[in-house]
Structure formats: structure tokens, C-alpha cells
Amino acid sequence: METIVASSVRQVKIGPDHPFVIIGERINPTGRKKLATEMAAWDFERVRADALAQVEAGAQMLDVNAGIPLADEPALLSEAIRVVQTVVDVPLNIDSSVVAALEAGLSAYQGKPLVNSVTGEEERLELVLPLVKKYGAAVIGIANDETGISEDPAERFRIAKKIVERAESYGINREDVIIDPLAMPVGAVRLAGSTLFTIVRRVREELGVNTICGVSNISFGLPDRGTLNATFLAMAISAGMTCAITNPLEENIRRTVQAADVLRGVDDNCQAWLQAQRIGEGESERSEIRRRRRERQGRRA
Amino acid sequence: METIVASSVRQVKIGPDHPFVIIGERINPTGRKKLATEMAAWDFERVRADALAQVEAGAQMLDVNAGIPLADEPALLSEAIRVVQTVVDVPLNIDSSVVAALEAGLSAYQGKPLVNSVTGEEERLELVLPLVKKYGAAVIGIANDETGISEDPAERFRIAKKIVERAESYGINREDVIIDPLAMPVGAVRLAGSTLFTIVRRVREELGVNTICGVSNISFGLPDRGTLNATFLAMAISAGMTCAITNPLEENIRRTVQAADVLRGVDDNCQAWLQAQRIGEGESERSEIRRRRRERQGRRA
Q: Which of B227, B238, B269 lies nearest to residue A235, judging by beta carbons?
């Protein structure tokens, strides 16, 4: 079980024998007013900065979304993708609910991207899967359909299976489908966590494909979301999840993923773990030097 | 699958449908020189304080160990158990590698304790299991034998199975055996984590009994042990582990366990999670009031 995505120069392998893949979620104007205003005005400075910062923080892929009300989303999304591909070389996740925007994004993209997303709805399957096949992409399949999001893990698994089988019928390899079992807020749906873990495990064991999810929704409405998100991520990884759309700039997320790589035995000789520690110490050393310099300047003034 | 242990007044149920059980590890003179000196001098003040502090921090059980070189361990352990049972009402884990000390502890104990531990070694099985049966206790079975600790999860599972079956042959119910798959340091043994997760899952699915482990050994020799321990614990819980011998005074451990209860759906309406948050806020409020009072006094002085 291995999904391979690529930019024009770099491949990323997603699977249980590889380090967990963080897909940086920041390039998304939803809920980011400034970014939305700038993108709508064709200003991509912040998009560039967000791309660089997330990759520097350890994102192996980036999500790119240009969903701004009243904007020309196909044009915006394809331009955003072009811009991001000029500043970083990681593979991208082309994110839109508008099929024309997905197609514009796919035609602008250099390499083999991930498409975010298709659901189990008949209409979506028929529109999105041919595009995925045409451009040789991989695709995220979300486990809901016309009837909404079931609270029954067996029903969501059934939809996941349907998406994988339908993709194959369009000539897409099953390993190019990554299932999102959907993380509901556990404060509202008591079994949201255990349902997700169950689906992740079944998808891995019975369908043999990768799973993904957004991380922060699980803790919506509850206090100390940082601890809940990190614990959720560790538990989902233990159940078999291999990638997530999340914020690599949040240290607890980044560190949990690195620790899980060590604990799954995919961080050879704990090199990445030790390296991250040295960088962290270097940072605090540099900030300590800056602090002392400021103090000295303060005394002189 | 449910292990029930008890003091004279309180029952604790260990199992996948219950909140995760933290067994406080602090009452153990190994590596705690002051505690060892005091206990050897028959001074149990620190034992009392450690018992109260751990229960207040959320330990549902306490481990009691009196392994001090040259001391009369049976007498010390039974006295420590008497002392602890006068100050807290949680069930205890009677911890010794000396069979005579286990027997002395068992005869002093009020209720149904956990015995820590038996291994798969023939001699230990023959000495410890009859005691467990005689006193109606539950027992921790450690997955090693005369040949040492295997790196092969199948071999360790085989020993776990042998312990469960041997216990049954002595008339001990299988749900009164809790398997410790053994956490090795992942810095030395690359697959230490994934091996443990595999055994936990198999023991749960194939033997239908609970699993336990110590938490801190996994991160031995590596930097940022706090993050590794918390991530390991979350992953082990996701694989099916239901209790652990650890330090409830470490906030990251305590919070990870509480978050995992929420995510497994066993914290009804997230009550414990919200309650812990209120206590945390109350604490910081009280410390803020104290800080302001000190400031005012400072200004007056």
C-alpha cells in the first residue's frame, strides 16, 4: 500500500512504511480574511510566504485552496498553484469543491498531484473521477454521500469501498485513492474518535489503501484543543492513518508526528528526531543570544 | 474483558469500556535514595505524602514497592501497604520480585489487589500463581521467560498466551491476568514501539485480556522524553492498552490519558475533561491572586 505523488522534481511516498506525511493546510482563504482579500486582488505574497514557512516547518506536501465567494475560482486556483510551484518543490493537494476549479488547477500543475476531493455522491464521482484519470492524479475520497455523514462506521466504510471500486472502474489504481473517514467534533458526537479509528483500521486492513483526515475538527468546542488534537493524531496514526491535512507550524502537531515516526520504527536511528532537537536547541540558543544582546543594549541606553 | 480490583471500600474496573487506569509509580525506592533511606529506617511519611499526591492527581491505583538492598523486604512491603491503605482508598499493585515479600504484602492487604508480577519462567509461574489464587488477587504477566526478552512479537505473544493458560490451570480467571508486553527503549531497539503495539492488539483480540506497561522506558536515552512518552501512551491506548504504571504528577501523561478517554468515547459528555480544565483554571486563578497579593505586600514594604 503506497500512494506516490510528485512535483516536477520531487516524489513523496505515502504509506505505513514511510514517515507520516503532513500536508500543510494554511493556503486556504476560508476563515482568513486578509488572505482572501489579497488573493481576490491577485496578490500572492502571503501565499508565497505561507508555502515557504510550512515547508520549512516540515510539511512534505501543501494543500492549495482558492475558494473565495464571487471570485473566479478556476483562474485563482490555477494561478495560486503556479505561484506555489515556483517557490517550493513539494507536491500539492489541489483543493476545491468546484469541479471547474479542480480542472483548471490540474491543467496548471506540474507533476502528479493529489485532488481534494471526491465524495460517494454519484454526481461527484462521475464528474471528478474522469478528471483524476485524465491528469494521472491521486484523489482523496470522503466517506459521505447524498444521505450525509453517517454515525455508523460500517456505513462510512461501505461508502469508502464504493469510492475505491468506482475509481478502479475509471482505470485509477486503488493505491491512488486516499480515504478521509471524516473527523466529527467529539464534543458533539461522543463516538467521533472511536468511529474514525475503526474506519481507518478497516480501510487499511480490508481495502489496503491509505487514509487521511483534517486534525482540528475533532476538538471543536472543547478546551485545550492542542492536547486533544495531538492525542487524536497519535491514536489515528496508531490505527493506521498515514497522512493528514494540518498545520505544521503548530509545534505539538509537528512533534507528535515526529515522535510517532520514531515509535513506528520508520525514523532510521531516530535521525530526524535527534536532528529536530538540535535545530530546536540551536533556535533557543540563538534567541538567548538575541535576548542578551537586547539586555546589554538596554543597559547602555 | 474486564479486570476488577478493589480496596476494602472501592472497586476499580479495568477494560476497554472504562476510563484508562493510571497506576501511580512513585512509591518505589528504586532510584529514589531519600525514600529508600527513610523506608529502611521505618519512616513512612514520604510514602503517605506520595500516596495522597498521586491519588489527588488522578491515579486510580497505586503501585507499592519496597525493594531496598539488605532490608527485610517482606516486613517493609507489608507495612508500606498497611500505611498506604490508611491514607488512601484506591486498590494497590503489590510490587516485588521476592516471592516472600509478595506473600507478606498479600496477607497484609485489605481487598482484591493486583500482583506485580509473574513472568513466563517456569519457576516463577509455579511460585507466584498459587499465591495469586490463594489470595483471590489479579496478576500482571510479563511477556519474557528463561530465554530473556525476544524481539519477535510472535514469541512474546506466545509467552503471554502461556501465562494466561497456566493461570487458568491454577483456577485463576483469565480476566484476572493483565499482560505486560514489555516496552524496550526505542532508541536502542528500532521496532520497540511497533512490536509493543502489535502484541497489545493481538493480546486483546486473540486472548481477550487486558494489557499494561511502564511508560517511561520507551524513551530512555532520547531527548524530549515527555513528547515521546505521551505519544507512545496515546498510540498504545489506541492499540488497546487499558492501564499503565506511570507518574500521574506528570501533566503531559495525565492530560494525554484524559484526552484519550474523550477520544475513545468513555468520558461521558466530556465531563472529566471539562472538570480538569476548570480545576486547572481555578489553580491559575488562585496563583494569580497570590501573585497580586505578594506584589501589593512588596509595594507596602
A: B238
Task: Out of B197, B256, B270, name the one closest to residue A227 (CB).
Answer: B256
Number of domains composing chain B: 2
- Same structural domain, B98 and B209: yes
Which residue is closest to A257 within chain B, CA to CA? B231
How many Å lie between the alpha carbon of B274 and the closest alpha carbon of chain A? 7
- One-letter amino acid at B241 equals M
User: CB A237 to CB B237 under 8 A?
Assistant: no
Mean pLDDT to the nearest integer, A85-93: 98
Is A153's Cβ below 8 Å from some Cβ in B?
no
Average pLDDT for A237-243: 98
Let me know whether A23 and A150 are in one domain. Answer: yes
Q: Do B59 and B143 sit in the same domain of this protein? A: yes
Phi, psi for A137 (deg, rounded to 5): -95, 175
Q: Cell numbers for A15, please give them.
A: 504509506
- CA-based Rg of chain A, rounded to a whole angstrom? 20
Domain region containing A170: 3-266
Residue of A nearest to B278 (CA): A223
Question: In A, which residues are within 8 Å of B259 by CB distance?
Answer: 224, 227-228, 230-232
Mean pLDDT by 10 residues, chain B (301 residues): 96 98 97 96 98 97 96 97 98 98 98 98 98 98 95 96 98 98 96 97 98 96 96 98 96 96 96 88 66 67 48
Closest CA to A234 of A275, A272, A205, A193: A193
Model confidence pLDDT, tens digit, residues B230-277: 999 999 999 999 999 999 999 999 999 999 999 999 999 999 999 998
Pairwise CA distance, residues A217 & A203, whole Å: 21
pTM: 0.93
